[in-house]
Amino acid sequence: MLNDNARRLQEVNDTLVKMSELVGTAISLATQALLNDDLSLAEQVMSGDDELNGLNADVEGLCFKISTLQAPMARDLRMVIGAIRMASSLERMGDLAVHIAKQVRLRYPNPSVPKELIVTFAEMGEAASNIVEEIGQVIATGDPALASKIAEYDDVLDRLHRELFIAVLAPTWAHGVEAAIDVTLLSRYFERFGDHAVTVAKRITHIAVGPTFSE
Amino acid sequence: MLNDNARRLQEVNDTLVKMSELVGTAISLATQALLNDDLSLAEQVMSGDDELNGLNADVEGLCFKISTLQAPMARDLRMVIGAIRMASSLERMGDLAVHIAKQVRLRYPNPSVPKELIVTFAEMGEAASNIVEEIGQVIATGDPALASKIAEYDDVLDRLHRELFIAVLAPTWAHGVEAAIDVTLLSRYFERFGDHAVTVAKRITHIAVGPTFSE
Description:
Helix content of chain A: over 70%
Oligomer: homodimer
Strand content of chain A: under 5%
């Protein structure tokens, strides 16, 4: 049974890595869709989300099986509980990519982002893609040392988010209320994406080095 | 050991009920702060959030102990895994109340919401308070039949969210870009609050009637 559980824990880990890959694809396509007003890419992001939701349920099912067969020991149990939380975060990151894609569809064939902000959103998309690539590596290796870069990319997202706020509130803003709201929400989706990545990174640290709560 | 775990499962449930009470207080105070531009209430919401975060960690610690002592049986295990997810959702609902409170602080002593939208936000606050009260009862009783009202209140929140979008995009909107963004974000916080409540209600159904994923 021990071997069964060791195998299942590996499967949980592989599923989380697979989720991070799918999230990476989703946020990269969503960004391209946003920058190029590409409806077909946006729809690809939306239709791809089911697979992520399915993998989230798979992680929970595997963790359920692991806990039924044998009470796992400390580190394994931290992995089981942590995996449930991380799968939630990754699934939510996929949802945020879908929110971006839906915004593209809503405004199509008009552009979702004014020209002068394209560069800022391209940078956000790059930071978001980088952050989820790091997440995949951190999960695959279980090495929290790799997690430090995640905070850096998150700082980039937070800075760009503030810059976009300043841009839409500037007296020079010439695109009206609707575009201002679009930009604010889009920017918030990227910023929340980064927050979830940070949550996942913290969880990997927690699994590797032990709990911060009393047990 | 069985008795220990039965006692701990009850403690998990009690903690989740306590969390829903604190979330109820938080969203109610945040709404009052918003409607009356009351900085002191807003600060109360912010300082109260630590307790919620602590209870979220407590739920995880209890679930950890339960799983260490003895592999729980099917329904208990669904409760353990479900409790971890529900505690996350409740903690996030508390964060959303804090976001509303921070918005009040940001604009203080100016009003956060234009006068003509006060009634709409009052309705949102009422629906949000109602939804979290139902959540507390559903968790306390474990009765998914009570969960049906939650979907109704969530529909109210979604409808009001759409109404606010229409209001800020109307040609009659006279409050500029900044106020439009404020209203949009505030409205989104209430709407997301409802989404999380729906997630909790679904989880209670899952615990009571069994899994939808293969096990």
